């Protein structure tokens, strides 16, 4: 694990000049990576013409840490799961950029580079992403004192397929996956789901996400298990949802059925639906002057997660 260089940056005053500098990257696993096997798979990173970055074939999952400006941290942390249909990670506009915005709220942010389902490198590709999300929650809790975090204020945020992963982790924490799950809780304190893939049923599914995770012919029991709206209980964390009505990639009803499930089980939930915006707009829905991150800040503040 890399040396913590935060004291050096504090001493040099660099955090003031660069308040959203990513201090370090933490490997999720320091020993053998669970649900992995030797393969020729190698991570690839592609920079798009617009500057966007897409990562695929993740073999070594990690967390990139973004610290708030010195003196502004409030003890809350958010782990961010970028989207990409379980085929790639849109790690810039659904990861790093979002972390910087959360830093402005005093939140310590961790961008999760999770493994994508891959038969070549994983014995069971259907659990690899959840293994990594649960390990990220454990690791941040283990590091809570180091980063001056409240271990009871660690939330999970996800975009698109990353939203499926966040909702998956937020509904199935009572049964951690893996052979040696460890003592730390893997329940997020709260969920933030942005145009999320929620359901794998035939009418709501995002076909690519379901095929990549479960294959072309999932069983009815698998479809049910991986449809997060069917897994909500009274213990599901408070949830914040954002979606656009004209989303042609992930139907808006994904968010609506999750909200309805929260309603049935008494889970506090807040949902913001925009008439336009399509899919994958990240921080900025260009069809409206309203910023969903302002709505998020209000929600976080109302629940006490921005209080020092």
Sheet with the most strands? 8 strands, mixed
How confident overall, as mean pLDDT? 92
Number of strands: 11
CATH hierarchy, class:
Alpha Beta
- Summed up, the helix count is 9
* End-to-end separation: 29 Å
Secondary-structure element pattern, one letter each? HHEEEEEEHEHEHEHHEHEH
Uncertain regions spanning at least 5 consecutive residues: 1-22
> What is the CATH architecture annotation?
3-Layer(aba) Sandwich
Rg from Cα: 18 Å
Q: What's the overall geometry?
A: globular
What do we call the CATH homologous superfamily?
Answer: Alpha/Beta hydrolase fold, catalytic domain
What is CATH's topology name?
Answer: Rossmann fold
Percentage of residues assigned to helices: 25-40%
Q: Which range does the strand content fall in?
A: 15-25%
Number of domains: 1
Strand order of the largest sheet: 1-4-7-5-8-9-10-11
Describe this structure in words.
- By secondary structure, this protein is of the alpha/beta class.
- The chain has one domain: Alpha/Beta hydrolase fold, catalytic domain (Rossmann fold, 3-Layer(aba) Sandwich), CATH 3.40.50.1820.
- It is built from nine helices and eleven strands.
- It has an eight-stranded mixed β-sheet with strand order 1-4-7-5-8-9-10-11, with helices on both faces.
- The longest helix has 15 residues, at 128-142.
- The two termini are 29 Å apart.
- The relative contact order is 0.12.
- Mean pLDDT is 92; it is low at 1-22.
Quick gist of this model?
With 308 residues, the protein is an alpha/beta fold. 28% of the residues lie in helices and 18% in strands. An eight-stranded mixed β-sheet has the order 1-4-7-5-8-9-10-11, with helices on both faces. The protein has a three-stranded antiparallel β-sheet with strand order 2-3-6.
């Amino acid at each position: 694990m890399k040396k913590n260089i935060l004291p050096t940056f504090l001493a040099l005053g660099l955090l003031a000049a660069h308040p959203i500098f990513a201090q370090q990257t933490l490997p999720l696993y320091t020993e053998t990576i669970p649900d992995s096997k030797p393969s020729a798979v190698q991570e690839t990173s592609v920079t798009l013409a617009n500057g966007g970055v897409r990562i695929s074939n993740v073999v070594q999952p990690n967390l990139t840490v973004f610290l708030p400006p010195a003196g502004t941290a409030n003890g809350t942390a958010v782990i961010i799961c970028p989207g990409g249909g379980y085929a790639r990670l849109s790690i810039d506009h659904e990861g790093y950029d979002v972390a910087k915005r959360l830093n402005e709220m005093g939140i310590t942010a961790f961008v999760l580079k999770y493994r994508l389902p891959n038969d070549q490198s994983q014995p069971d590709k259907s659990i690899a992403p959840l293994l990594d999300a649960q390990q990220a929650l454990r690791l941040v809790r283990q590091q809570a004192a180091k980063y001056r975090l409240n271990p009871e204020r660690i939330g999970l945020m996800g975009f698109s397929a990353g939203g499926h992963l966040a909702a998956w982790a937020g509904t199935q924490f009572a049964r951690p996956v893996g052979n040696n799950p460890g003592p730390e809780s893997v329940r997020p304190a709260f969920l933030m789901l942005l145009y999320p893939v929620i359901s794998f049923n035939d009418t709501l599914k995002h076909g690519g996400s379901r095929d990549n995770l479960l294959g072309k012919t999932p069983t009815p029991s698998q479809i049910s298990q991986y449809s997060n709206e069917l897994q909500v209980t009274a213990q599901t964390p408070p949830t914040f949802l954002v979606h656009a009505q004209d989303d042609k990639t992930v139907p808006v009803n994904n968010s609506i059925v999750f909200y309805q499930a929260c309603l049935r089980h008494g889970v506090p939930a807040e949902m913001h639906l925009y008439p336009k915006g399509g899919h994958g707009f990240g921080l900025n829905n260009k069809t409206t002057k309203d910023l969903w991150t302002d709505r998020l800040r209000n929600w976080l503040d109302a629940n006490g997660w921005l209080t020092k």
